[in-house]
Amino acid sequence: MSKFFLPILVAALPVFAGAAQLTEIEARWLQAGGPVLAYAKQLRLPIDIVVQPQAAPGAVPLAMGFDGGRCKLVFSMRGNPAAEEVLDQVPQSRRALMIEAMTAHEIGHCWRYAQGIWHAVPKGFQEPPVDAAVPAEIVKLTLELRDTRREEGYADLAALAWMQRNHPGEYGHVYQWLSAVRAAQPTTHVSHDTANWLGLVADGKSFAGNGTPFEQARALWDKGMLSAD
């Protein structure tokens, strides 16, 4: 995502400058993700919040895009009756927690982008060879899918590292929910197949050492890259 049309910008993080313009669901998701956004502000991550004003049926309710060197956390919830479908199996008492995890996932994307390592691989990692017999357009799509899957793997780890740091008693619930969401996808050609990385962190204690949750996620993501492809 690189361009946004007719956005409503909420300029302050995490103060909701445009609160009067927000719908109930938008305000609720912003409130739930507030701790992550406040932390992102402390880290000086270049984030803008964009609320799409037009109807977006079937759109991903929360996504990260990039434009002009800045990260754009995009809410697409208006005219989108399935916006909260991902939470259907979550008890009401834990829905804010899962929204916080989703926000941490998206901020993980921004951290990678701000670090200048978007789609970069760990030092010393060897890419598998490309089959010369495969048509060029198929190779291009396959590589794009691979790169997206890798970034989603990192972002899932970032979300779980955040949970372990801030809600360790709820880690198991978040991990089980996220694993179920990923397992419900098709088994082939999936950009969000992050099982390779999720398998490393069934126990939240896998996130060890100092550093931000994003740095802890990076160490485990590097480890998972050894067997990702």
UniProtKB/TrEMBL annotation:
UniProt keyword annotations, A-Z: Signal
The protein's name in its UniProt record: Peptidase
Signal peptide, first to last residue: 1-19
Protein source organism: Pseudoduganella namucuonensis
